[in-house]
Write a structure and sequence with these properties.
Number of helices: 9
Largest sheet: 8 strands, mixed
Strand content: 15-25%
CATH superfamily of one domain: L,D-transpeptidase catalytic domain-like
Structural class: alpha+beta
Shape: globular
CATH topology of one domain: L,D-transpeptidase catalytic domain-like
Distance between the termini: 45 Å
Number of strands: 14
């Protein structure tokens, strides 16, 4: 049986319906495949007696499991959650209302417990590094790792840090020892056996969808687009390279707003890691300097704008990396 959450405002009391927790398999940088692998089979469908999602928290968890990313899980019906739900409804032949109505809930049933337990290991805690502030300092690090236990847990569980604090109100995030345990949304890295034929990016909605030849959505996620309209390449592009755990070349000319950039006078190579500016995956396109990639700031995806590339949450960039190959067309629509 699943442990259920009832949300009042952002999050209210936790109610238990007798279903035990199950452990999630969180995304880690080392889990990123060296090259696109054959997708694993889909998770088994929800059994017919499994309950429909009861609230927006459970809906977000189950949507993530099925490839409909709503950004960071926060238990609130925002614009990105509504877009993810509409993608699910379109795939299921329902009117795309973005409303969690009875017909939608009947199809969006929990496939596993919505909550899991994360146990911090010695390796987790040893991997943390204080955040580097300057570009030069970032280039001198061996890796751009998670800066705190809260950041690590939030990204591994695709969760807004504020919600993690709410789920674990008595937890001391600043004084951890190996074995410390928290409750997290039970989501795992997403992949699919369906073959992705193309990627659609809709600039107006700031949405990316990877679809089959027949138009079925395999992966839906929010995306940040270029700040300058002239850097938004409307039309058809193609994937030319896929790179896991990329490094990043910092070019001062691309960052005229940065005082440090104007004094450096040279390019810098920033090491890989979840806090690298392009995150945990780079999917290069056949337009010089353009690509789809991760980001160290998942809460900003779809809400802030980039210098030209298409920016995804790390978990979505890694999922997309597992689904595409060199040659996949990318259709950028106004």
């Amino acid at each position: 049986m699943f442990r259920r959450l009832l949300f009042f405002s952002v999050l209210g009391a936790v109610a238990t319906a007798g279903w035990a927790q199950s452990a999630a398999a969180p995304l880690r940088p080392e889990d990123t495949p060296a090259q696109p692998a054959d997708p694993a089979p889909d998770a088994p469908p929800a059994p017919p007696d499994s309950p429909p999602v009861a609230n927006w928290f459970e809906a977000q968890v189950e949507l993530h499991r099925r490839g409909y990313s709503c950004g960071s899980i926060d238990g609130v019906r925002g614009a990105q959650t509504a877009e993810a739900l509409m993608a699910f409804q379109r795939n299921e032949g329902l009117p795309p209302t973005g409303v969690l109505d009875a017909a939608t809930r009947d199809l969006l049933r929990l496939t596993a417990a919505p909550l899991a337990t994360h146990i911090f290991t010695a390796a987790d805690l040893a991997s943390l590094e204080p955040a580097a502030v300057t570009w030069l300092e970032k280039s001198q690090r061996p890796a751009l790792a998670y800066a705190s236990a809260l950041e690590l847990a939030a990204e591994l569980s695709r969760t807004n840090p504020k919600l993690l604090r709410t789920l674990n109100p008595a937890f001391n995030w600043d004084d951890l020892l190996p074995g410390a345990t928290i409750s997290v949304p039970a989501v795992a890295p997403f992949t699919s056996p369906l073959r992705v034929a193309r990627i659609h990016i809709r600039l107006a909605e700031k949405v990316l969808e990877a679809t089959t030849e027949e138009g079925r959505i395999v992966l839906h996620c929010p995306v940040s687009i270029a700040r300058n309209v002239e850097k938004r390449p409307v039309g058809e592009l193609r994937v030319t390279v896929v790179i896991p755990n990329p490094d990043y070349t910092f070019d001062p000319a691309v960052f005229p707003e940065s005082a440090e950039a104007q004094t450096l006078g040279r390019k810098l190579i920033l090491p890989p890691g979840p806090n690298n500016p392009v995150g945990l995956a780079w999917i290069g396109l056949d337009r010089p300097g353009y690509g789809l990639h991760g980001t160290p700031d998942p809460e900003k995806v779809g809400r802030t704008e980039s210098h030209g590339c298409f920016r995804l949450a790390n978990w979505d960039a890694v999922a997309l990396f597992s689904l595409v190959r060199v040659g996949t067309p990318v259709l950028v629509e106004p």
